[in-house]
Amino acid sequence: MTKIAQTNAHVIDAVAHRWSPRAFTDKSVKAVDLKSILEAARWAASAYNEQPWRYIVATRDNEAEFNKLLGVLVEANQAWAKGAQVLMLSLAKKTYTYNGSNNRHAWHDVGMADAQLSLQASALGIATHWMAGFDGEKARDVYNIPDEFEPVAALAIGYEGDPETLPEGYRKAEVAPRERKTHDQLFFTGSFGQPTKL
């Protein structure tokens, strides 16, 4: 099922086609494609070129590692994410390497890397679904994550599957139309709340 964004202006295909399905097929993600997806994240922009992102990656090829990362997700996400071919966890380094000061842009920069990763996957016809529903402390424990890093988001990657394979509670959301706030609600000029005239 393809859910192409109904945009108000032209965007590249990778943006229009990117959405967050929960249903995945059992088709493997090739190593060369996964490397390409990770490379897109590597080349994201960041404050002071700090590159504060780190990723923990688990593929279905290694069942023990896949289940280890699956176990970090909340139960509701485990119910559908177990069908993905790849699971990942993004982390943010909380301080700048060059002076040790707090990097208040770290989560933003990890988001930049996450977005590039998602768009590269979309360009390859591979679906991604980011999740806030995971146990950060459990992740820190099972992966020995140092204190200077903060778990940010979990990710399921794979080829889009049939919504009918999902647990009942997720099927309706899977086929619902995609929605976004209006341009006037998001983009301002002059003062907050004053819509940009474009």
Would you write up a description of this structure?
The chain is α+β, with helices and mostly antiparallel strands. It has a domain at 30-159: NADH Oxidase (3-Layer(aba) Sandwich). The protein is built from 8 helices and 4 strands. It has helices at 13-17, 31-42, 63-70, 75-81, 106-123, 136-142, 168-175, 183-186, and strands at 53-59, 86-93, 127-131, 149-158. A 4-stranded antiparallel β-sheet has the order 1-2-4-3, with helices on both faces. Helix 2 runs antiparallel to helix 5 (106-123). It starts with 12 loop residues before the first helix and ends in a 12-residue tail after the last helix. The relative contact order is 0.21. The model has no long low-confidence stretch (mean pLDDT 93).
Fold blueprint:
Elements: H1 13-17, H2 31-42, E1 53-59, H3 63-70, H4 75-81, E2 86-93, H5 106-123, E3 127-131, H6 136-142, E4 149-158, H7 168-175, H8 183-186
Antiparallel strand pairs: 1-2, 2-4, 3-4
Residue share in helices? 25-40%
Radius of gyration: 18 Å
- Taking pLDDT < 50 over at least 5 consecutive residues as the criterion, the unreliable ranges are none
**DSSP strand tally:** 4
H and E order: HHEHHEHEHEHH
CATH homology superfamily name of the domain at 30-159: NADH Oxidase
Shape assignment: globular
Mean pLDDT: 93
Termini distance?
32 Å
- Sheet with most strands: strand arrangement: 1-2-4-3
Here the CATH topology of the domain at 30-159 equals: NADH Oxidase
SS-based structural class? alpha+beta
* Number of helical stretches of at least 4 residues: 8
The major pleated sheet works out as:
4 strands, antiparallel
| Strand-residue proportion | 15-25%
CATH top level of the domain at 30-159 is Alpha Beta
Q: Tell me which CATH architecture of the domain at 30-159 applies here.
A: 3-Layer(aba) Sandwich
